[in-house]
Amino acid sequence: MPQYANNPDRKTWLTVPENSDFPIQNIPFGVFLTKEDVITIGTRIGDFAIDMGALQQLGYFDDLGLPDDMFLQDSLNDFIAYGKKTWRQVRNRLSDLFEINNPTLRDNEEQRKIVIFHVHDVEMLLPVQIGDYTDFYSSKEHATNVGKMFRDPENALLPNWLHIPVGYHGRSSTIIPSGVPVHRPLGQTLPADATTPVFGPSKLVDFELEMAFITTDANVMGEPVPIHEAEDYIFGMVLFNDWSARDIQKWEYVPLGPFLAKNFASSISPWIVIMDALEPFRVASPAQNPQPLPYLQQEGNHAFDIHLEVALQPENSTETVISRSNFKYMYWTMAQQLAHHTINGCRVNSGDMMGSGTISGPTEDSFGSMLELTWGGKNPLRLSDGSERKFIQDNDTVILRGYCQNERVRIGFGECSSKLLPAVSFNV
Amino acid sequence: MPQYANNPDRKTWLTVPENSDFPIQNIPFGVFLTKEDVITIGTRIGDFAIDMGALQQLGYFDDLGLPDDMFLQDSLNDFIAYGKKTWRQVRNRLSDLFEINNPTLRDNEEQRKIVIFHVHDVEMLLPVQIGDYTDFYSSKEHATNVGKMFRDPENALLPNWLHIPVGYHGRSSTIIPSGVPVHRPLGQTLPADATTPVFGPSKLVDFELEMAFITTDANVMGEPVPIHEAEDYIFGMVLFNDWSARDIQKWEYVPLGPFLAKNFASSISPWIVIMDALEPFRVASPAQNPQPLPYLQQEGNHAFDIHLEVALQPENSTETVISRSNFKYMYWTMAQQLAHHTINGCRVNSGDMMGSGTISGPTEDSFGSMLELTWGGKNPLRLSDGSERKFIQDNDTVILRGYCQNERVRIGFGECSSKLLPAVSFNV
To answer: Is the model's pTM score more than 0.90?
Structure first.
C-alpha cells in the first residue's frame, strides 16, 4: 500500500502553525473527551482535535470493513488489534480527507462543526487500556552512569547488560496522560548511617526521560516473535516520564527490582504517533559489540532520530530546558526488546506498553534524569529564575517534548507534562 | 449481615463426596464454558458446577439490585467491583438455594437441568481479567533459604526484608488456569565458568508453591489504603504456581529483578474461595521482630491456616507428594502487603492479583520449590516410581492442593495442575 500519507508535499485545508508537531504528515491517534461529554477516538492536525467517531458516523470509513463503533470507544485497543494494514488505511483516509484540494469535508460547514474541535476544548484521556507494562533499561549511557554512581566506576555495566535488553515489569494502573498531576509519594527510606528505616514523603523525586511503544497482539502464548517480524507488532510511540523516588528505590530494590519507587505514577503524551509516520526518520542504531545472540541480530536501520528535551518549570515561573537528548542513542532497538520479551513464549497483547528506559546521551547536558544531571545531587542545576534543583521540588512541572525533523517535514509528539504536588497527608 | 453461609451444620440437597473441598459452606466463584459453548460465572458444590448466569435469568437474584447480565460474563471483575456486601448477599443466596430443605430448585427438575453440570462437563476458564499482577516474597523461610544458597549463609536475609513486604511486578498476560500446559521456556543462560551466554531451553525449570489474592477497587490514585481497611478490599484467594526458570533467572535478574525467568507462565486454581469462607480458619501470623513501621502494624489474627501440598506426577506414572506446607507460615500478612503496595498512592483495581511469594515452612519437607527441596539440585528427590528429580522434567505435571480443615468443616481450593511440555522448536 502506498504510504502517500507521508508525502512531504501534502498540504491541508486546516490551518497548521509553523513548526507544529502535527502536520498532515503525522496523523497520530488518541482518545479525548469533548465538552458535550462524549468520549471518542480521534486524531490531531495542527491545533485541531478531530473526532473520528463522528467521522465514522458520517460514513467516512464505511468501505473499510470496520465495526460501526470502531472509533466511538474509550480506548484504541480494538483498533490496534486490527493490525498494520488497517492502521495504514485509516491514516491514508484521514490524510485524504484533510488534503487541501479535497472539498468533501472542507466545504461542509455543518459537518466540520461536528467533527473538528480546538485542542483546548477537549480533554485528552489515556489512549489505550494498558494490559501489561514493561520497562527496559536500554540506554548504555544511562546504565553506565548509574553503575558508576552506585556500583563500580571501573566496571559500571553489569555482565549481562551487553547481551540482554534488560527489562522488568511495571505497574499499568498508574500510567496517566499528560496534564494529570502526581503526588510526592510516601514510603520507607533508610537515612544515611541508619540501620532502621523511617517513614515519610520521598525526598528525592526524579523524572526519567523515556519513550514507550504500544503493541498489537503479537503471538500466542508459548511462541516467540522472530526479530524480523517484531516491528510489525509495534503500533506507535509516546513520550514517557517514569517518575521515580530515588530514596525509596535505594532501600527497596535489592533483590527483586524497583517497586514502590516507580509505581506511584508514569506520565505519557496522549497522542500515539504511529510507526508509519516515523519511517522517514529511521537511522542506524549504535554498533553492538559483542554481537548479540542470533535471536537478537538484525540488519538495516532500526533506530529513530527523535529529538528529545526536558523542561522544568517551577510554580509561577518560566521553564528551563535541563536536558536535550535523542532516542537514537538507545543501544537496544524496540525490535530487539520485543523479540527478547517473547523469546520465552511470553504473550504480548494489543495495548501493552513497553518503555525504553531512561534515555541518556553521551554528554552531561543530555542525561535523562536529575540523578544523572546533578550526579546524585552533588552538582545542582541552576534554573533560569535563579533557583537551584538537586531533584524535583513540590509544584514543579516536568515537561518532556520530542520531535523528528528533516528538510521537508517535522513529526512531533507534543508534550508530556506533569506537575509534582506535595505528599498527601496520611495518618495511620 | 449474618454469615449464615458459614454455618457448619448446613447440608445441601446435592450429593457432596466425603472430604470434598467444596461443601455448601464454601461457595467459591469461577468462570466456565459449558458444552453448549456458553461462558458463564458459576459456583461449585461437591462435584457440580452451577451456572449463575442461568440462575440469574431464572430470577434467583432479582431482588439484589444487580445488572441483568451480572453473571453472564466472561470474568468476575464487574461482580468483584460491587464489593463485600454484594459478595456476601450472593453467597448467602446460593447457600439458601442449595440448602437441603429448600424445595425451590431442588424439586424443579427442568431448572436443575439448565443450571447444574458435572464438573467434568465444563471447562474452567480464568476467573478474572487480571489488570496488574504483583508477586510478594513474604515467606521468611523461603527468603532465608534463597539467601543461604546464593548470598551469605550468615546474613541470609537482606537488610530490608524484615521492614518491607518485598514485592515486584509480574506479567498478567501469561497467568493461566489449572489444566493448561506450559512449554519449557527458551532463553539466555550463562554456563558455569563461561563469560558469554548461550541460547536454548532452560535446564532448571521449577515450580513455586504460592497463593494469590484478588482485589476489588481499593483506592483512587494517590491515596494509601490504611492497614485496618485493607482486608475489606480482598475478594478471595487461589492456589498459584509461579513457574520459574532458575538458570534464566540467575543470568538476568541483577539489577532489576526476575523477568523472562518468571513471565512465561503462572498457573492458578480456577475457583476463587472468598475470604468470608476462610474466616473460621483465621489464626495468628508469626511474631514480627523488629516491629514494623506504624503503617504496617495490625492487631488480631490476620493469617489463615491453609494446608498446602505439592505433588509431582511423571508422564504415565503415579504422583508423589513432594512438599507439605501451610499458608500460615507467611511472615507478612495480605493486609500488610496491600497496605504497603498502596502507601505511595499506587492504585489497586478490581481483578488485580497479588501472589504471596513461595511459601516454605520450617522443615525440609515443607519447602515450596525444587530449588529448596533439592538445595539447588544437590539432593535430588526420589519419586514413588523410583525416578529422581533435581528440577522439573518435560511432561511432568505439578499439582498444588490446598484446604482448611477443622472438626466441623473442610474448605478447599481444589487443584492447580499444570504439565510442563518440551520447549517449542524455534529457528531464528
So the answer is: yes
